[in-house]
Sequence to fold (491 residues):
Amino acid sequence: MYNLLLQSSDWALFIGRFHPVLVHLPIGFLIITALLEVLRRFDKVIVSESVIRLLLLLSAIGATLACIAGYLLADGGGYDHELLDSHMWKGIGIALFAWIAWLLKSDLLTARLKTAPVLASSLLLVATLLTFVAGHDGGSLTHGADYLTQHTPEPFRSLAGMPAKVVEIAELGPIADVPNAIVYVDIIKPVLERTCTQCHGPGKQKGDLRLDNLTAMIKGGKEGPAIVVGKSAESELIKRCLLPLEDEKHMSPKGKAQLTENQIALISWWIDQGASEDKKVAELKTNDAVKPALASLGSSAQNEVADKTTSEPEIKVALGNPQAIEALQKVNFLVRPLAHGQNLIEVSAVNKPGLTDEQVGLLKPLSEQVIWLKIGGTKITDNALKAISGFKNLKKLHLENTAITDAGLDALKDMPHLAYLNLVGTKVTDDGLKKIAALKGLKSVFVWQSAITEKGIEEIRKTHAHIQIVGGLNEESVAEFVRLGEAKTLN
Fold:
């Protein structure tokens, strides 16, 4: 059975991941047992030996199960070996001392060995103390070496001889002088430290990968190099970030801090430009894909790399109906103003994967105000597009990973300003592409993993050269997809 578990990584990891649950059993039992033992020594409580024996037995069983699960979890790799060994042997020590203490408390040994009660109490004390030390190691393995001490306040830091606390960078920017910022040190590294190095740093290396320094990133881990210098589209770091959130290989894992599209754009640009450790922004070639992301780092008006061509022509519309907005929010739509002082809005169903065609109808009272609509990844069909056919100011529309077909695209013909359309993962064919190519304002359309063929794309490119059609993931298309998906405005 043991060999079978080790041979089956799924079984080993399945059982191993119960370690955090199981490890609390011996901790609780040992602390309660030690506390009762002390209190009854001072005649504060009356507890029978049989109760102490039972608690010690439960402690020993719990510690043993935790050790087994911990060993199987560690077999998955990605931990600091020295710290892991320390944690493992302390855990084994806890289990061993608990078993011996239980035996010493038995009637047989107590009757034959006069020092048995004293030895049992001593071993109980040692086992209890070890749980705290082993717990510290466990926290360090999971969250980093300084997990427990990271937020130690003054004056205790100074008294303990600890270095001054390092202030964490929660977000990028603002950077006072973006052109003279060192790209890796001032932009890339802070992003990785906030989102990646907890699991891929000095204290823990999932998949044997470290992302806390450039050499380690190029060397990579079990899955190969994290970055391929000059080729962001071939870099595992970028590939993992672009995977769907539900994909088990998506980084960062669901529930953890995620890289924003701007941050992915910046890292992609840095890799494509050679992944230098010491070059400044001004020393690297900027492109339209990265300019909005760089602009977001600074204080804007003085930012030399800001892209002035993305400003939205002023569109005057009335204030959106408050009751209509409230109705959308009640069914988990996100509604946000496009910019301060404007009545144009962005509506997103990112928190509503179960969105239906009928619920899209709630948008109708806001047909003039909606300029950016995200309804991708939902259950909508062609009927949903009929509900938004009169949205004359709509410029960006996300329909990716839905049941939209060629027939539904007929509803877009009355959207003269539609400039961005995402059809990734839909059933739209070459015929559908011909329909949307007729839209006068269309500039960018994303169609990979749809039913549209390369031949169909080439035909449209010949007759509509002004439309950028992205039919697959390559270096340029990834960067462009990130830029257009993040920017809230289009010409």
Observations:
- Strands lie at 334-337, 345-348, 370-374, 396-398, 420-422, 444-446, 468-470.
- The mean pLDDT is 79.
